[in-house]
Amino acid sequence: MISFTPADIDAIRLSAKVAVAATLVSLPFGFAAAYVMSYYSFRGKVLLEVLLNLPLTLPPVLIGYLLLLSLGKKGWLGQYLDAAGIRIIFTWYAAMIASAVVGFPLLVRSIRIGMESIDERLIQASRTLGARWYDTLFTVILPLSFRGVIAGSSLMFGRSLGEFGATIIVAGNIPGVTQTMPLAIYEYASSPGGERMALALCLVAIVLSLAVLFLHEFLGSRLGRRD
Amino acid sequence: MKRFVTSLAMALCITLLAVSAPLAGELNLSVAASLRETMNELADAFAKKHPDVNILKNYGASGALAKQIESGAPTDLFLSANVEWMDYLKERRLVEPSSIGTFAYNTLVFAGTTTQKIAGLKDLVKLQRIAIGSPKSVPAGEYALEGFRKAGVEKELSGKLVMAKDVREAMKYAELGEVDGAFVYRTDALLLGRQTKILFTVPEGLHDRVTYPMALTITGAKKGEAQEFLRFLRSAEAKNVLAKYGFPTK
Fold it and tell me: Interface pTM (ipTM) of the complex?
C-alpha cells in the first residue's frame, strides 16, 4: 500500500485549492472577455484575439519568468505591491496567478463557443421587448451560455491542476506552502530512489484529471440535452 | 511547388541524418551545477588540445544527474558535489571504482540581500524566505539541512524554505531579492552581483565537508578520450583553473 507523507497530502490539497481559486478568480474576467469578443466588433479585435490566446502557445516557463520579473520585489508592479506590504512571489497566490494566466484562453474559448451558439434572434427579441443590455446579458445570454461556462471552468480547473512551468518559477517550491502536486512529482522524479513516490503521485494526478474530464463530458451532455 | 517540397524534405532528411550520425570522439560529462563556469573553461582548454573531441556538458543537481545515469543516460564522466551520489552509483556498479578520485572541495555559505543582521544558523529564524537546493537531489541543500538539524532550527524553518532545483537556482532567487538569502557554495557567491553579500559561512563541523568526487562511468572507462580527460582534470593546469574560481583542492 502506498502511503503519502504529510507534504504529499499538502501538495494534493494545495493543487486543488489553487485550481479552484484560479478558476473562480478568472470566471468574471473570462466571461467579460468572451462577451466582448462575441458581441462587439471594433478596431484591433484580431490583435486582442491573438493576445488572449497567447498564453496557449507561449511556453509556460516564459509566462512564469515574465510574472517573476513583473511581480518580483524589483519588478515594475512588484515594487508597488512590496511598498504596500503585499507579497506574491513564493506564496500560493503566485501559483494561483500563474494558473489563471495559463488557463485563461481555455476558459474564454469555451464560453465564446457557448455564446456564439445562442440563436441571435433570441437576443434581438429580448432587446425589441425593451430589455436593457444587462437584462439581456443576465436573463438570456448567461443562462443560454451556461454550458460553455461550465465546460470552460472544468477545462481550466483541469489545466490548473497540472500547471507546472510557470508555477515552479513564481511559486517556488516550498513543501506544505507552495509545492503543488506537479512540483512534488518533479522533485521525486529527479531524486534517486523517488520512483515509487513519483508514480504514486502520478496515479493521483491521473485519477483527478480523469474525474475532471468525465465530469466535463457528463455536464456537457446533460446540459446539451436540456436545450 | 512539388520540386520545392521535395527539396525541403530532402534537406530535412539530411539534417536529421547529420544530427543522428554518431560523431567520432564524443565525450559526455555530467557535472554538478556549481562547477559550471569552471568546467566550461576546463572543457574549452581540453578541446583546444584535442580538437577532434566533441564535449557535451550536462549540468544539474548531482542527485538528478545520478538518477539520469542510473536510468541509462549516456555519460562518460560524473562529477558530483557530494560523496553520497557517487557511492550510490558505485553500489549499482555504474561507475568504475578504480577511477574515483577527489576533484575539489568547497565551503557552504549563506548569501543574500537582507539588511538584517544574520551571523549564524540560529539567526535564520528571523527571516521570511530562505532558498536551498532541494535536499532530495541537491547536495548544497542536503549540507544545509544537516546544518539546520545540528543547530536545532529545522522545525522553525519549515515553511520558509524555497526548494530550488539546483544550487544555481537558489542563487538566482537570492540575487533577485525574492528570498532573504540562499545557501550556496562560496564559489557561487563569488560570482554574485555586488548587492548580494556572504552573510556567514556554515561552520565545517555542522556538516560533512563539501567534496567533489569524480569518476568515469563503466562506458566512459572504455573510452580513450574519457581517460584522457580524467587525466587532464587531475593535472596542475586544471588545479590552476579551480584555484582561479576559488575551489580549494586540498
Answer: 0.70
- Mean pLDDT across B41-57: 93
Residues of A in Cβ contact (< 8 Å) with B162: 90, 172-174
pTM of the model: 0.79
C-alpha span between A188 and B131 (Å, rounded)? 18
Over residues B198-216, mean pLDDT: 93
Measured between beta carbons, the chain B residues lying within 8 angstroms of A73 are 176-178
CA-CA distance, A212 to A157, in Å (whole number)?
8
* SS3 state of residue A10: helix
Q: Write down the pLDDT at residue B204.
A: 85
Do residue B67 and residue A72 have CB atoms under 8 angstroms apart?
Answer: no
Q: Could you tell me the three cell numbers for B120?
A: 549564524
Task: Answer yes or no: are the C-beta atoms of B124 and B130 closer than 8 Å.
Answer: yes
Residue B8 has pLDDT above 70, yes or no: no
What is the architecture of the domain spanning A9-226?
Orthogonal Bundle (1.10)
Q: Is the distance from CB of A89 to CB of A72 less than 8 angstroms?
A: yes
Closest to B71 (Cα-Cα) out of B101, B50, B94, B87: B94
Average pLDDT, chain B: 89
Q: How far is CA B77 from CA B57, B86, B198, B236, in A?
A: 10, 11, 32, 19
pLDDT < 70 stretches in chain A: 1-2, 222-227
Ordered by start, the domain boundaries in chain B are 24-105+209-244, 108-201
pLDDT digits 0-9 by tens, A42-67: 999 999 999 999 999 999 999 999 99
Give the list of residues 6+ apart from residue B11 with CB closer than 8 angstroms, or none. none
Using an 8 Å Cβ cutoff, are B61 and B142 in contact? no
Per-residue confidence (pLDDT) for residue A190, from 0 to 100: 82
Chain B contacts of A172, Cβ < 8 Å?
129, 131, 162-164, 173, 178-179
Per-residue pLDDT of B147-190, as tens digits, reads 999 999 999 998 899 999 889 989 988 988 889 999 999 999 98
* CATH class of the domain whose range is B108-201: alpha beta
| Superfamily of the domain at B24-105+209-244 | Periplasmic binding protein-like II (3.40.190.10)
Mention every residue, 6+ apart, whose C-beta is less than 8 A from residue A6. A176
Which residues of B touch chain A, with CB atoms under 8 Å apart? 60-61, 63-64, 66-67, 70, 85, 88, 129, 131, 134, 136-137, 158-165, 173, 176-179
The β-bridge relationship of strands B108-112 and B77-79 is unpaired
Cell numbers for B106, please give them.
568547497
Q: How far apart are CA B197 and CA B190, in angstroms?
A: 9
What digits encode the pLDDT tens for the residues B73-87?
Answer: 999 999 999 999 999
Domains B24-105+209-244 and B108-201 share a fold: yes
